[in-house]
Design goal:
β3 and β4 form a beta hairpin. The two termini are about 35 Å apart. It contains no helices and six strands. The chain is mainly β. The strands form two sheets. It has a four-stranded antiparallel sheet, with no helix packed on it. It has one domain.
Amino acid sequence: MLPLHRDEFYTFTFADARLVPRFHLDGAGEGCSVDVFRLEPDGGGPAELLASAVVGPGGWVDLPAPLVVRAGGGFLARVGPGGLARDLPPVRVVIARPTGGTR
């Protein structure tokens, strides 16, 4: 079954305040760029850009400086184009030739 919608962001929310020096992105390819945005409190969408980084070994992203996240807050991470291992393969069109008869 193919998904009808795929969220382009990884969303991280926290009940308590914390410093976040690194985080893990499941399915992200090593060496891909990542942009990190503040999570908009009311709408849940991306606000201003907080940091840019690169996915390291095992899907870990080490940030240039730790993010300060307030209790109930969070952030969104977006992997650059082509950086997700879970992306679907390209669609291929196959035209079948008729079997039997003349061509």
